[in-house]
Amino acid sequence: MSEIIDGKALSAQIKEGLSDRINTLKSKGITPSLTVILVGDDPASAVYVKNKHQTFINLGLISEVVRLPAETSQEKLIEQIEKLNKDDTVHGILIQLPLPPHLNSQIAISSIDPSKDVDGFHIENAGALLTGNPKFIPCTPYGVMRMLKSKDIYIRGAEAVIVGASNIVGKPMALLLQMAGATVTICNSKTRDLAAQTKRADILVAAAGKPHLINGEMIKDGAVVIDVGIHRKEDGKLCGDVDFESASKKASFITPVPGGVGPMTIVMLLVNTVEAAERKAGITPQREGII
Ligand code: GUN
After folding, report:
1. Catalytic residues
2. I need a surface site. Which of 44, 65, 253, 272 has the fewest CB within 10 A?
3. How high is the pLDDT of residue 175?
4. Ligand 1: distance of its center to the CA of 23 in Å?
5. How many Cβ atoms from other residues are within 10 Å of residue 32's Cβ?
6. Is residue 137 packed enough to be buried (19+ CB in 10 Å), middle (13-18) or exposed (0-12)?
7. CB of 267 sitting under 6 A from ligand 1
8. Alpha helix ranges (H) inside the chain
9. Between β-strands 238-239 and 253-254, what pairing exists: parallel, antiparallel or unpaired?
10. What confidence tens digit (pLDDT) does each residue in 3-50 have?
């Protein structure tokens, strides 16, 4: 049987570790502050935004949500972002994705001040990560790296296989694992024999957005399995991209859904927002090593 990597417990520990940094900022009259822009009324996005907001409020940080109607124009969205760029009390800006189809997310993200881009999606931050000198690291892959570190999982020389090639998870995940010394394969929806790839993995990251895409037969004995997927089943229960039941019989370590990567994404957003506030205050962020 595999050992569970408990994202809920680890995220609580990371939160605890941030309190000194938050207190230092507060002693200077600075409260880290995040503004989330939510366009339209996608129910899943509304839940994610509410969870982020509650986490910030519970820690005594500032969280605002700007809700814009689904028919908001690109110009109006950019106008709103530029207003937040100029607002000195806002340290972090996050545009909840996906945006309604008539809006161009890359253009919107590129209009965020890179020093407030706590998602790490702006091309300046994506480029900084690509060239090995990251500033804001995208929250989900950052959280996964912290999960691997929490169990002293050896990355150097490991075969890492990532299923899913998104800008939010797959691509930055590949860069981080590669920087840590893994040999990385990124699979996508066109990969010919997915199981042949996943079976080679010492570290398997499932981030395809397909419920139960990965089962035990696709996993090597002793592999570390990280499940980034989150889906609501017809019975109302949550599940991931991995069939936990069969996968946990093969994996050495595995993340559950819920209570795995999800809470880590939120806590890394906290970390990035505290970093943004620290940089603005002239404090060099003390970043926990992940590589
Ligand atoms: N939608 C799904 N995941 C994310 C994320 O990490 N950031 C943003 N902004 N939107 C998302």
Report:
1. 52, 96, 119
2. 44
3. 98
4. 28
5. 28
6. buried
7. no
8. 7-27, 43-58, 74-86, 105-110, 123-130, 139-150, 170-179, 194-198, 244-247, 261-280
9. unpaired
10. 999 999 999 999 999 999 999 999 999 999 999 999 999 999 999 999
Which residue type does 259 have? G
Residue 251 is assigned to a ligand binding site = no
Q: Which residue has the tokens 């990597």?
A: 5
Alpha-helical (H) ranges within 131-260 are 139-150, 170-179, 194-198, 244-247
Atom index in ligand 1 nearest the CA of residue 138 equals 6
The per-residue pLDDT for range 127-175, each reduced to its tens digit, is 999 999 999 999 999 999 999 999 999 999 999 999 999 999 999 999 9
How long a stretch of residues is the chain? Answer: 291
- Judged against a pLDDT cut of 90, whether residue 90 lies above it is answered with yes
The terminus-to-terminus CA distance of the chain in angstroms comes to 28
1 pLDDT exceeds 90?
A: no
- For residues 291 and 144, give the distance between their C-alpha atoms in angstroms, rounded to a whole number: 12
Confidence tier at 289 by pLDDT (50, 70, 90) = confident
> What are the chain's domains?
26-123 (3.40.50.10860), 139-262 (3.40.50.720)
Q: Are 121 and 61 in contact (CB under 8 A)?
A: no
